[in-house]
Write a structure and sequence with these properties.
Shape of chain A: elongated
CATH class of the largest domain in chain A: Mainly Alpha
Number of strands of chain A: 0
Distance between the termini of chain B: 33 Å
Helix content of chain A: over 70%
Helix content of chain B: over 70%
Strand content of chain A: under 5%
Oligomer: heterodimer
CATH topology of the largest domain in chain A: Rna Polymerase Sigma Factor, Chain: A
Strand content of chain B: under 5%
Low-confidence stretches of chain A: 108-116
Mean pLDDT of chain A: 80
Radius of gyration of chain A: 24 Å
Largest sheet of chain B: none
CATH architecture of the largest domain in chain A: Orthogonal Bundle
Structural class of chain A: mainly alpha
Order of helices and strands of chain A: HHHHHHHHH
Number of domains of chain A: 2
């Protein structure tokens, strides 16, 4: 498959405008630029090759069908990702199969390690540590935090803000406590 | 991990994934899109002609010529004739005949088919107005050069403008949807 040099130099959004105007070469360039991302993304999430190929084809055919819905002020790659993900979820729902959610193992470990670091901040009170732990480790919102610590939501926000300031001060070596 | 973070990580993984899709699938997708974006020109013309035939027949039911009128009420025709004169009346007649067909075609044909008509720069509508005149001759209409030319002008102009305007409206509507 050869591509025209002019189209190669254009960004995705410019190519989408050309594609919306009926230029099939623009689609070809977009396809060749991004097919590997879509294919690999689906391969990691679906159990068998047939399913991957079906969702892959559906994704690009959906892109084609909905090309006029694309607004050039948004990034094409984000739009393509949204289409691919919704096609994946639709497929899994229809076929009643469970797709594999992506987990970045390295990042997950990093987050756990971060939680242990809280003990290193001597200037934090127990309540502040507990609040930060509920906020960042348990992923609770202010409503849940206020209920757990038996304080008002505005108080929880104040404690959180104070704790963050203390951490910042510690990190910048400006700890007066 | 919050939902938002999950999406961010999922998107990051999408961006960083890379695995080329099988060539046969790629070819099938690209070929399908190419065929869809480049509809057969002859087929588009036949479709437009058929729609024009149908709509033209309906407009004939309100036309004083050819004795096809259902209502036998020619007030509108007389109004145009008396107020604008014979020449303008001929242009309006052509505009109604082909313009109505163009409006129906604008919402019946695919956007790609409309694009093919638009790209012909009035050639399709000119050809259809010529064919229509041929049919009128068969049915015993008396054609005079100056009036016929004005009829063709009104018909082609109205059809071209209607097709372009409604194509624009459909594109805008799709963007807003």
């Amino acid at each position: 498959m050869t591509l025209t040099g002019n189209a190669q130099k254009m960004n995705d959004e410019q190519l989408m405008i050309k594609y919306q105007d009926g230029d099939h070469k623009a689609f070809e360039v977009l396809y060749l630029r991004h097919e590997s991302k879509v294919y690999a993304y689906l391969r990691k999430r679906l159990p068998d090759q047939d399913s991957v190929e079906e969702v892959f084809q559906n994704t690009f055919l959906k892109v084609h069908k909905s090309r006029f819905h694309f607004k050039p002020k948004f990034l094409f790659i984000q739009w393509l990702y949204t289409v691919a993900r919704s096609e994946l979820l639709d497929f899994c729902k229809k076929k009643k199969i469970i797709h594999i959610e992506y987990v970045d193992q390295g990042k997950a470990k990093e987050e756990i390690d971060d939680s242990l670091d809280l003990d290193n901040y001597k200037n934090l009170s127990d309540k502040e540590k507990e609040l930060l732990s509920l906020k960042f480790i348990s992923d609770n919102d202010y409503e849940e935090i206020s209920a757990a610590l038996n304080i008002s939501q505005s108080n929880a926000r104040k404690i959180f803000s104070r704790a963050i300031k203390k951490i910042k001060a510690t990190l910048s070596g400006d700890n007066n406590d | 991990m919050t939902k938002e973070n999950k999406f961010k990580d999922d998107f990051k993984d999408f961006i960083n994934s890379k695995e080329v899709a099988p060539r046969n699938i790629s070819h099938s997708i690209i070929d399908r899109v190419k065929a869809d974006l480049n509809p057969n020109k002859q087929l588009v013309f036949v479709k437009l002609l058929s729609l024009q035939l149908l709509t033209g027949l309906i407009t004939m039911l309100f036309c004083p010529q050819f004795k096809m009128s259902l209502t036998n009420n020619h007030d509108l025709f007389h109004y145009f004739h008396h107020n604008f004169g014979e020449h303008i009346c001929m242009m309006i007649c052509g505009a109604i005949f082909l313009g109505s067909g163009a409006i129906v075609a604008s919402y019946t044909l695919d956007l790609e088919e409309l694009r093919v008509i638009k790209k012909s720069k009035g050639l399709y509508t000119l050809a259809i107005s010529g064919l229509s005149l041929g049919v009128f001759l068969i049915f015993g209409a008396k054609l005079y050069l100056d009036l016929t030319l004005l009829w063709v002008l009104g018909a082609s102009l109205a059809a071209t403008v209607m097709l372009a305007f409604n194509y624009f409206l459909r594109r805008k509507f799709l963007l807003l949807a």
